[in-house]
Amino acid sequence: MAKPKLKEHVINLDWCKGCGICIAFCPKSVLELDEKEKVVVARAKDCICCQLCELRCPDLAIKVEME
Question: Is residue 1's pLDDT more than 80?
Fold first, then answer.
């Protein structure tokens, strides 16, 4: 089975409340909070497409799109 390849992270900043749950669950520290306390992708190249951020977001604000 081929390793999934990241296309992009789609983050709905209007829905994100900056709770940090996605950051806490990311095994590769891909996400961070910005100065507005909204999640941003800091290290996209390190993403392993586990989708834990997407699955754990209580606000459905993040989507991991794969090729």
Answer: no
